[in-house]
Amino acid sequence: MGLDVVTTPAQTSPAPVLGPGSGALDRGLAILTHLTRVRSCTTPELADALGLSRSTTYRLVERLRDSGWLVDEPSGHVRLGPAAARLASAAVASTSLKDAAIPALRALLTATQETVSLAVPNELSMVFVHRERGPRPVGVSAELGTSRPLHCTSVGRAYLAALPPVQCENVLDALIQSPQSPVDESSIDALRDEIERTRQRGWSQDAREFDPSSSCCGAAVFDHTGQPIAAISVAGVAERMENILDEIGPMVRATAAEISATLGYVDAH
Q1: Which of 19, 232, 242, 245 has the largest CB neighbor count within 10 A?
Q2: Average of pLDDT values for 187-199?
Q3: What sign results for the dihedral spanned by CA atoms 183, 187, 192, 198?
Q4: What's the pTM?
Q5: What domains, with CATH codes, occur in the chain?
C-alpha cells in the first residue's frame, strides 16, 4: 500500500503569545522562537510582533546578543546567532527519524484506528521502515522492509510532491526511462497532475491504485535543511477508507508536520 507525500500549503505562523505573567526567560524564548520563523527583523518589529515595550525588547536583544544568541546584520536587523546554531545542531544530532516519528504515528493510529507507516526513499521506490497495524478486525497488513513504487502510492506521491521542482522532474525522467517502471510518455502528464494536486492540498492519496483492496493517504516528512527525507501514511480497507480520505488526509498532513518540526524543520513561510 502506498503512502502519498504531500506538502502542505504555506501558512503564516503567528508570533508566540506572551501571557501577563511572562518573565524575562519567557520573553527571551519568544524572541528566539519568532526569529526562527521570520529569519530576521528589526528590534522595533520584534517589539510589535510580541506585544512588548521597545525598551524591554532592546534590553533583551542586547543580552541575547552578548551571549551569542543573536547577531546584527548590516541592514540593522537581528537574526539568530552561533549559540542558537550550536543548540539546533545538537538537537538535530540527538534525534533520529524513527525516534521523532513513532510517538506521533502511534497517536495517529489511535485517532484513525488504521494502519500507520513510515517509509524512506530508495532509488525509484519507498521502503517501509516502521509500520503498525490498526486494531480493526479487518485491516491492512504491516510488513516491514517491503517497497512500494513512487508513481502510484501515497508515500511515493507525497515524496515526489515534496521534492524541489527540478529534482522532481529528474526523478520523473528516471521513471520514464526505467524498464521496471510502467510510467511512460503517455502517462507522465497524469502523474504530474496528481503530484500538483498533492502539493495543493498538502497530502496525497492512493485510491485502490496500488492494491484494489486498500486506500491510503500520506504526507512528506522534512529534515532540518528543508529536504524531504521520508513519508508517512494511513492505510485501510478500501470500502472503509475511500469515503473518509478527505478527513484522514489533513490528520496525516498535521502529523507529518509535527514529525518534521521535531527534526528541526522550520517552514520559512
Answers
A1: 232
A2: 93
A3: negative
A4: 0.67
A5: 24-89 (1.10.10.10), 93-262 (3.30.450.40)
